[in-house]
Amino acid sequence: MAEGDLVLMGPPGSGKGTQSRRMVDELGFVQLATGDLFRAHLSQGTELGKLAQTYMSKGQYVPDDITVKMVRERLADIPRKTRIAFDGFPRTVAQAQALDRLLKECGRSLAAVLLLDVPRDELLKRLGTRATCSRCQTVYSLAVRPPKVPGVCDHCGGPVSATARSDESPEVVKKRLEVYETETRPVIEYYEKRGVLQRVSGVGTMDEIGARLTMLLDRRKAARAAK
Ligand SMILES: [Zn+2]
Asked: How remote is the CA of residue 64 from the centroid of ligand 1, in Å?
C-alpha cells in the first residue's frame, strides 16, 4: 500500500466512519478524528478543551487554530511509521494548509485524500432509516444497508436498533447535506488542484466499498513505484 497518511472525506451517511474504523482494524491505521479529540479534551478539562467549549456552548464552530493545536499535540504521540487516517479534519482550506505544514514538521506525508461519493437520493434514503449498533457504534441503513442478520451487528454481534433522532427529519437531513456541501467544496477543490483527491464510489456493501478503497491505495502505490 502507498506510503503516507490519508484524509477520508464523505457526506453524512456515506459510511465514512465505518470505513475509517475498518482501516484501523484491518490495515493498521490510527484514526485521528477531531470529534474524538474534542471529546477527550473536554472530558480531561484541558486548557484547549475549555477554550473549545466556550465556542461549542454557543453553537459556534471551534476556531481553526484551536483545532490545529489539538491535532498537532496528538500527532506528536503517533510514531512516524504508523499511518494515520484523518477523519473530520481538515474541514476548511486553512485547516488543510495547516495539515500540510504539520505533516511536514513531523516528516510525514499525505498519500491521498479519499472522497466517498454517494448520490444525494441515496444519502437521503440512508439517513432517513438509520440504525446503530449500541456496542461498537457502527451505523447501518435499514433501507439500503441493513445488517446481514436483522438486529445483529455484522461487526461485533451487538444489538442494532433504529436511531430515533429528532434531528433526522427529511428537512433537517437535507439541510445537513447542504451545509456539508457548502463547507467542504473549497477543501475538495484544494485537494483536487494538488492532484491528491481520489473519488471512490460509496455505493454498495461495506465490504465492496472497503475493497475499492484498498485497491485504490494499492494502485497509487504501483503508480508511485513506477515514477
Ligand atoms: Zn457492533
From this structure: 33
Is 91 an annotated catalytic residue? yes
Determine the distance separating the centroid of ligand 1 and the alpha carbon of 162, expressed in angstroms.
13
HSE of 174, CA atoms in CB hemisphere, 13 A: 4
H or E segment to which residue 49 belongs: helix 47-56
Amino acid at 22: R
Q: What is the DSSP letter of 61?
A: P
Distance between CA atoms of residues 74 and 87, nearest Å: 13
Q: Which cell goes with 191?
A: 485537494
Regions of the chain short of the pLDDT cut 70: 1-2, 163-168, 221, 224, 227
Q: Look at residue 146 and give its three-state secondary structure.
A: coil
Calculate how far, in angstroms, residue 142's C-alpha sits from the geometric centre of ligand 1. Answer: 15
0.90 exceeded by the pTM?
A: no
- Identity of the amino acid at 164: A
Decide if 220 is catalytic.
no
Neighbours of ion ligand 1 (CB under 5 A): 133, 135-136, 138, 153, 155-156, 158
Q: What is the pLDDT of residues 56-98, one digit of tens each?
A: 888 788 899 999 999 999 999 999 999 999 998 998 999 999 9
Domain ranges of the chain: 5-119+184-222
Catalytic residue among 74, 91, 145, 220: 91
**pLDDT at 149 (0 to 100):** 93
CATH number for 5-119+184-222: choose from 3.40.50.2300, 3.90.1300.10, 3.40.50.300, 2.40.160.20: 3.40.50.300
